Amino acid sequence: MKYKIKAQFLRPTYVQDYYSQVHHLNQGNLSIEEYIRELEKIVIKCDLHDLEKQIIVRYLGGLGIRYANVVD
Description:
This protein has one domain (13-71). It has helices spanning 2-9, 14-24, 32-45, 52-62, 65-71. By secondary structure, the protein is mainly α. It is elongated and about 45 Å long. 71% of the residues lie in helices and 0% in strands. Helix 2 (14-24) packs antiparallel against helix 3.
């Protein structure tokens, strides 16, 4: 039922748009907490079912360089 509702009310590019946002998300001026919250929000919206390792790589890829080196 969930899939039928989504198909009925969401634009066809909805999930694709959020996948794009996940791939292009950068920490920029966000705090680490804000960056994590934004990443989680996008992952939930696009119903991303990637492996945990893949999500971690996406997280580190968008994290600021000085933090990514420490976390990595």
